[in-house]
Write a structure and sequence with these properties.
Blueprint: H1 7-18, H2 22-35, E1 40-46, E2 50-55, H3 62-67, H4 89-99, E3 101-107, E4 111-115, E5 118-121, E6 127-133, H5 140-143, H6 149-166, E7 171-176, E8 179-182, H7 187-192, E9 199-206, E10 209-216, E11 224-228, E12 231-233, H8 236-250, E13 256-262, E14 268-269, E15 280-281, H9 285-303, E16 306-308, E17 328-335, E18 339-343, E19 347-352, H10 353-367, E20 372-382, H11 385-392, E21 400-405, E22 408-415, H12 423-428, H13 435-443, H14 453-463, E23 479-483, H15 484-490
Parallel strand pairs: 1-7, 11-13
Antiparallel strand pairs: 1-2, 2-6, 3-4, 3-6, 4-5, 7-8, 9-10, 10-13, 11-12, 14-15, 16-17, 17-18, 18-19, 19-23, 20-22, 21-22
Helix pairs in contact: 1-4, 2-6, 8-9, 10-13, 10-14
């Protein structure tokens, strides 16, 4: 028999479409803070049960606070045809209220606290603080499908990273299970672990559409960030356009990029789903402009593909090889999918791509700030007695934390720069008394991997920053140097 749902159930179903997991709440609340003109936003999460977002933006007066959690209330727009803000404050708060325990503390002229539909005067700082607890407490079916806490926390971190990238003028602080991350003026390094030198800059404008951002090469893990009028979205068609154009130019499609698209608000529909995490454009010209922006960036890069390598000298027992001098080197490219060739007026250098990448990863991990990722549920794997003996002889301080019980390895924490998916395979196949040696060797670019000119350039740029970069972790040479005069002599051109 068909029956009509009661109003409470209808509201919970609608709220569940907007709030699907903790990261949806983080996104909605950060967008509200940005719309409120905040210059500081602090985010705190604890497992899947506590979220707190505080800002110093324009707070709410009592009259607004009374209605902000009601359904279909907003201060953000008059027409769906032209939405110039990020969020719909009333809609988000109403949805959050329906699926959790919600508190709002806000001050515009006077401080107020909203809880359980009651408002009281309270001491408060200028701005708004929103606390969300017991998510999906009244929707156990939805709570059952939340991902493991580590995955949900990482999804929240991705949202914070995205808006920290896009809004460099806002000071962000993110506290995750008592571990605090501060975002500096170098947001690229904060979020991606790299700096401007490993990017191709995108800056293109046509038909009142402006495309800016960066194409990243040399990253171990692929990450993409798309913003439309400063709104963080995930759009498969945009991602496909960028990758297809890049692949046509370089034969490589698996890339990372940051793309900020600025266009007329009438061109984009941000209301195609309740979570507002995707957009739809009313004209395909936007994709043509994106494609042209990538081609333009690649063409500009081709004209600047000359490297200035720093002068370095060092002593070693083996043959003296000086790589970095005050001459200009050009990256010729890759041969046999194994070696990178660079040259200048007087010499040619052949670099072993695996040896170089392995040494680069080792030095980066060794010198990195030790920030540990602590797991609520350990990563587990059976482990042999032989591997246990090897592991006991290795110093894993600031790399991994673990315990072994009944020949089962339990990893409880790991350095944030390590790839969680590759920890077990590295531990189970230890060959040296240095965990980083084995990790870098197993997880670096290998001989036989195809590289494009940008990948080659990234390796050379990183290699030049390393002291005594002549040999790899195993003692093999990283590069060989061939003098032009010697080559001419061998061809009888003396």
């Amino acid at each position: 028999m068909i029956r009509k749902l009661d109003l409470q159930t209808i509201r919970q179903v609608a709220a569940g479409q907007v709030i699907q997991n903790p990261s949806c709440i983080i996104k909605e609340l950060i967008e509200n803070s940005i719309d409120a003109g905040a210059t500081e936003i602090n985010i705190e999460i604890r497992n899947n049960n506590f979220i707190k977002v505080s800002d110093n933006g324009i707070g709410m007066c009592r009259e607004d606070l009374e209605v902000c959690t009601e359904s279909h209330t907003t201060s953000k727009f008059d027409s769906l045809d032209k939405i110039t803000t990020l969020g719909f404050r009333g809609e988000a708060l109403n949805a959050i209220k329906m699926v959790s325990h919600l508190q709002i503390i806000t001050k515009k002229y006077e401080g107020y606290k909203w809880e359980n539909n009651h408002i009281n005067i309270t001491p408060a700082n200028n701005g708004t603080t929103i606390i969300v607890e017991n998510l999906f407490i009244n929707m156990p079916a939805r709570a059952k499908f939340l991902r493991p806490i580590t995955e949900e926390n990482n999804a929240c971190a991705e949202i914070v990273d995205a808006y920290a990238l896009c809004y460099e003028n806002i000071k962000f602080k993110f506290k995750k299970n008592n571990k605090t991350k501060y975002y500096t003026i170098n947001r690229l390094k904060d979020v991606l672990g790299t700096d401007q030198s490993t990017f191709i800059n995108i800056n293109y404008e046509k038909d009142n559409i402006k495309i800016s951002g960066q194409i990243l090469y040399g990253l171990i893990n692929t990450k993409n960030y798309i913003f439309v009028n400063n709104r963080y979205v995930k759009n498969k068609k945009i991602t496909q356009v960028v990758r297809n154009v890049y692949q046509k130019e370089t034969n490589v499609s698996n890339i990372s990029f940051i793309l900020n698209i600025k266009c007329d608000y009438e061109m984009v529909d941000v209301n195609i789903n309740p979570a507002k995490d995707d957009v739809r454009f009313n004209n395909n010209i936007i994709f043509e402009v994106i494609a042209k922006s990538i081609i333009h960036a690649m063409n500009v890069e081709k004209f600047t593909n000359t490297l200035i390598l720093e002068e370095q000298s060092y002593n070693q027992k083996s043959e003296q090889i000086l790589l970095y001098e005050e001459d200009k080197y050009q990256v010729l490219g890759q041969v046999w999918n194994t070696y990178i060739i660079i040259f200048n007026k007087t010499e040619m250098i052949m670099i072993d791509q695996h040896a170089a990448a392995e040494r680069i990863m080792y030095e980066q991990l060794k010198s990195s700030v030790s920030v540990m990722t602590y797991l609520l549920y350990p990563i587990q794997s059976p482990i042999s007695n032989e591997s246990i003996d090897k592991l006991k002889n290795i110093d894993c301080t600031n790399l991994i934390e673990y315990h072994i019980k009944n020949n089962v390895l339990n990893i409880t924490a790991y350095n944030c720069l390590l790839d969680e998916r590759k920890l077990i395979s590295t531990i189970l196949h230890l060959r040296h008394n240095d965990f980083l040696y084995d990790y870098a060797c197993r997880n670096s670019i290998k001989a036989g991997d195809m590289l494009n000119i940008l990948d080659c350039k990234a390796i050379v740029n990183s290699l030049m920053k390393i002291d005594n970069a002549a040999i790899c972790n195993h003692g093999r040479p990283i590069y060989l140097k061939y003098n032009k005069s010697t080559i001419n002599h061998n061809f009888c051109r003396c």
